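Technical annex, item 7. During the second reporting period the consortium partners agreed on a shared format for inverse folding records so that results from different sites could be compared directly. Each record opens with the tokenized structure and is followed by the designed sequence. A conforming record, contributed by the partner at site C, is shown below for reference.
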């Protein structure tokens, strides 16, 4: 139906809880299990990977390039970039999540369910906000309990003239100029527990 589909790991919990400390063999096995399942279901390999819980390690970044993925979205950050690998900039760009998620905002600084759409919109329209932005949603929240707030957010963006598109379209726009090379570190994001992969 025109929706873009990519790999979001094979076992969400195992990846999220284990990849940061995993060795190359574990990482390859988990990634290949996901690729095989994806191809079995969709009849073609995925073009992209988005790591569960924004958790990744250097082995996964190398494998994304070696396995020919077109792009990945494993990180939090501000702009698309090429990860700095041991052999130089990766051929598999990262398109980081740039905006806070609903669950990161809900209950913080007085934001209730009825204020989620406006809170995310304010982040997206803040002075100095990135030109290309990525909002990560979760089917069980924005597609269920928070569906009304998500609908309001879409309406707010459309009314402001924002163009909503696929991740592949964001990559096309980003590649109109040379992407910067950045290292990926581990850092915190307000409202989310633990350390995540972040654009450093």
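Designed sequence (site C submission):
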């Amino acid at each position: 139906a025109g929706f873009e589909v990519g790999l979001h790991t094979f076992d969400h919990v195992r990846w999220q809880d284990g990849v940061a400390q995993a060795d190359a063999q574990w990482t390859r096995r988990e990634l290949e299990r996901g690729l095989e399942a994806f191809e079995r279901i969709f009849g073609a390999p995925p073009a992209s990977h988005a790591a569960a819980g924004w958790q990744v390690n250097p082995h996964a970044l190398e494998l994304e390039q070696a396995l020919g993925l077109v792009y990945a979205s494993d990180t939090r950050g501000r702009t698309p970039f090429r990860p700095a690998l041991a052999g130089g900039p990766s051929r598999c760009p990262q398109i980081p999540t740039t905006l806070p998620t609903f669950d990161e905002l809900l209950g913080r600084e007085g934001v209730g369910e009825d204020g989620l759409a406006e809170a995310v919109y304010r982040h997206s329209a803040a002075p100095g906000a990135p030109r290309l932005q990525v909002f990560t949603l979760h089917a069980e929240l924005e597609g269920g309990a928070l569906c009304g707030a998500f609908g309001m957010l879409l309406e707010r963006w459309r009314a402001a003239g924002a163009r909503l598109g696929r991740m592949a379209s964001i990559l096309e726009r980003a590649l109109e100029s040379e992407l910067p090379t950045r290292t990926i570190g581990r850092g915190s994001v307000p409202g989310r527990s633990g350390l995540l992969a972040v654009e450093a």
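The first strand starts at residue 48 and ends at 49. The two ends are 36 Å apart (CA to CA). All partners now use this format for quarterly exchanges.
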